[in-house]
UniProtKB/TrEMBL annotation:
Signal peptide: none annotated. It catalyses: (2E)-tetradecenoyl-CoA = (3Z)-tetradecenoyl-CoA; (3Z)-dodecenoyl-CoA = (2E)-dodecenoyl-CoA; (3Z)-octenoyl-CoA = (2E)-octenoyl-CoA; (3Z)-decenoyl-CoA = (2E)-decenoyl-CoA. PANTHER family: ENOYL-COA DELTA ISOMERASE 1, MITOCHONDRIAL (PTHR11941:SF45), ENOYL-COA HYDRATASE-RELATED (PTHR11941). Key enzyme of fatty acid beta-oxidation. Able to isomerize both 3-cis (3Z) and 3-trans (3E) double bonds into the 2-trans (2E) form in a range of enoyl-CoA species, with a preference for (3Z)-enoyl-CoAs over (3E)-enoyl-CoAs. The catalytic efficiency of this enzyme is not affected by the fatty acyl chain length. It comes from Zophobas morio. GO terms for cellular component: mitochondrial matrix. One of its GO terms (biological process) is fatty acid beta-oxidation. This is Enoyl-CoA delta isomerase 1, mitochondrial. Homotrimer. One of its GO terms (molecular function) is delta(3)-delta(2)-enoyl-CoA isomerase activity. InterPro entries: ClpP/crotonase-like_dom_sf, Enoyl-CoA_hydra/iso.
Length: 281
C-alpha cells in the first residue's frame, strides 16, 4: 500500500520535488502528513492548454499513478482563471502535426485523470470554460470559488464537445441538464453550477477550498484502495474504453475539422469578439 513506511513517503516526496523542478508548467507538492499531492497549473496567464502544458499534465498524472498517490488536488496558480481551455491561438491557422499531437495528448489527460486509481478533487479557483471545465469534470469532486464561470461552451465557438466529454457531463449533472447546457454552450456562474451539480461545494477562499478538498479525500482513509479503485473503474470504465477504441479516428476527424476554413473563420471571429489579445493580420 502507498506510503506504508516513512521511508516510502520520504522517497515519494523527494521524487515529486525533483520532478516538480523539471516541470515549469505544473508544480507538484506532497503533503507529507496526508500523502495528498497538489498539482498546480501555472502556465501564464490563464493556463490555456497548449501541447506543452497538456504534455506536462499527462506526465504528472503518470508519475502520480506510478507512485501510488493517495489523493490529488488539481488547482491553478492564478487567482482568476483555473484554465481558459484549449489555447485558441494555437488552434488558429495551425500546423496539422502539432494539432494532432495536441488532441491525442488531451485524450491521454482525460483517460489518466478520469480513470485514475486515486481520488481526485478540482479546486476551481478561477474561471473554467471548455477545456478548463473538462479538467474539473474529470476529477471526482469539485470545490469552486465564488464569482467565476464554468461550463462547456464549445457550441458557442462553433463545434461539439466529443462523446467522452459529453459522457462526463451526463454522468455528473444528468442527461436532461447536460442536453440544455451543451446545446446552448452555457457558462454557469458558481452558484448556478452548484444548483445543477456541476460543482459539489462552494468556498469563499482558496484555503477553505483546499480544506474541503482534503475532507473529501479523507473520506477514503478507511476504504481499501483497491476496492475503491475497482469500483471507480466499474463506474467509469465503459466511457474510457469507448474513447480508447475510437482514439485515432477521433484525432483524424478533429484535425480535419480544425483545419477546415469554415471552422477557422468562426474561430477567428470568436477570438476577435471575446479575447483581449487579437490575431495578427
Ligand atoms: C471534432 C472534435 C471537436 C471539438 C472537440 C471539443 C472539445 C474537446 C474537449 C475540451 C476542449 C475544449 C475546447 C476549448 O477549450 S476551446 C477554448 C475555449 N475557451 C474560452 O472560450 C475562454 C476564452 N477566454 C475567456 O473567456 C476569458 O479570457 C476568461 C474568462 C478565461 C478570463 O477572463 P479575464 O477577463 O480574466 O482575462 P482576459 O483578459 O480575457 O484574458 C487574459 C489573457 O489570456 C488570453 N486568453 C484567454 N483565453 C484564452 C485561450 N483559450 N487561449 C489563448 N489565450 C487566451 C487573453 O487573450 C488575454 O491575453 P493578453 O491580452 O493578456 O495577452
Amino acid at each position: 500500500m502507498a506510503f506504508r513506511t516513512a521511508r516510502n513517503l520520504a522517497y515519494f516526496s523527494n521524487y515529486i520535488r525533483n520532478y516538480s523542478t523539471n516541470g515549469p508548467l505544473v508544480n507538484v507538492t506532497v503533503n507529507e502528513k496526508s500523502g495528498f499531492a497538489t498539482a498546480t497549473l501555472q502556465r501564464p496567464s490563464v493556463n490555456s492548454l497548449n501541447l506543452e502544458l497538456l504534455t506536462e499534465i499527462s506526465h504528472t498524472l503518470q508519475q502520480l499513478e506510478k507512485n501510488k498517490c493517495r489523493g490529488l488536488i488539481l488547482t491553478s496558480a492564478s487567482n482568476k482563471v483555473f484554465s481558459a481551455g484549449l489555447d485558441l491561438f494555437e488552434l488558429h491557422k495551425p500546423n496539422a502535426d502539432k494539432i494532432k499531437q495536441m488532441w491525442s495528448t488531451l485524450q491521454e489527460v482525460w483517460i489518466k485523470l478520469y480513470g485514475s486509481s486515486y481520488p481526485t478533487v478540482a479546486v476551481v479557483n478561477g474561471h473554467a470554460p471548455a477545456g478548463g471545465c473538462m479538467l474539473a469534470l474529470s476529477c471526482e469532486y469539485r470545490v469552486m470559488l465564488n464569482n467565476f464561470i464554468i461550463g462547456l461552451n464549445e457550441a458557442q465557438i462553433g463545434f461539439s464537445a466529443p462523446m467522452w466529454l459529453i459522457d462526463g457531463m451526463r454522468n455528473t449533472i444528468g442527461s436532461r441538464q447536460a442536453e440544455f447546457a451543451l446545446t446552448a454552450g452555457t457558462l454557469f456562474k458558481t452558484e448556478e453550477a452548484l444548483k445543477i451539480g456541476l460543482v459539489d461545494e462552494v468556498a469563499q477562499s482558496k484555503e477553505e477550498a483546499i480544506e474541503k478538498a482534503e475532507k473529501f479525500l479523507n473520506k477514503f482513509a478507511k476504504i481499501p484502495p483497491h476496492a475503491r479503485s475497482m469500483t471507480k473503474a466499474a463506474l467509469r470504465g465503459a466511457n474510457i474504453q469507448a474513447l480508447v477504441r475510437n482514439k485515432d479516428e477521433e484525432v483524424r476527424s478533429y484535425v480535419d475539422f480544425v483545419t477546415d476554413s469554415q471552422f477557422q473563420d468562426s474561430l477567428g471571429e470568436f477570438i476577435e469578439l471575446n479575447l483581449k489579445q487579437k490575431l495578427s493580420k
